[in-house]
Write a structure and sequence with these properties.
six-stranded antiparallel barrel
Length: 103
């Protein structure tokens, strides 16, 4: 299922609120902040354009990283998406900021 995920699935969600389903079964409301395609990272025979997604939480959380699930247009719930936390770097330190990479 992860191989089916394309940047356009997240494009439709940019600027919107979604729910990240954490590994412990809890749900975290998040904002989909940014989407960036990475053409220089594309492998020779890969059909998918690599891309990354930046998310921010709407509430404090202790979650750092792990395999999460997320609802995507056209695909429904996609499991086993590795989400990793990034430093706030000048943003609100009470919230959490996350990064997803699709190669």
């Amino acid at each position: 299922m992860l191989q089916s995920v394309q940047s356009q699935h997240f494009q439709a969600l940019l600027g919107r609120i979604g729910t990240l389903h954490l590994p412990d079964g809890t749900e975290l409301p998040i904002h989909i902040d940014e989407l960036a395609e990475k053409p220089l990272a594309q492998m020779r025979y890969s059909e998918r354009m690599p891309f990354s997604v930046e998310l921010s939480s709407l509430q404090p959380t202790e979650f750092v990283d792990g395999l999460c699930a997320f609802e995507l247009p056209e695909l429904g719930r996609v499991d086993d998406i590795f989400v990793s936390r990034v430093p706030p770097m000048g943003r609100d330190p009470k919230l959490a900021y996350f990064h997803i990479t699709f190669n």
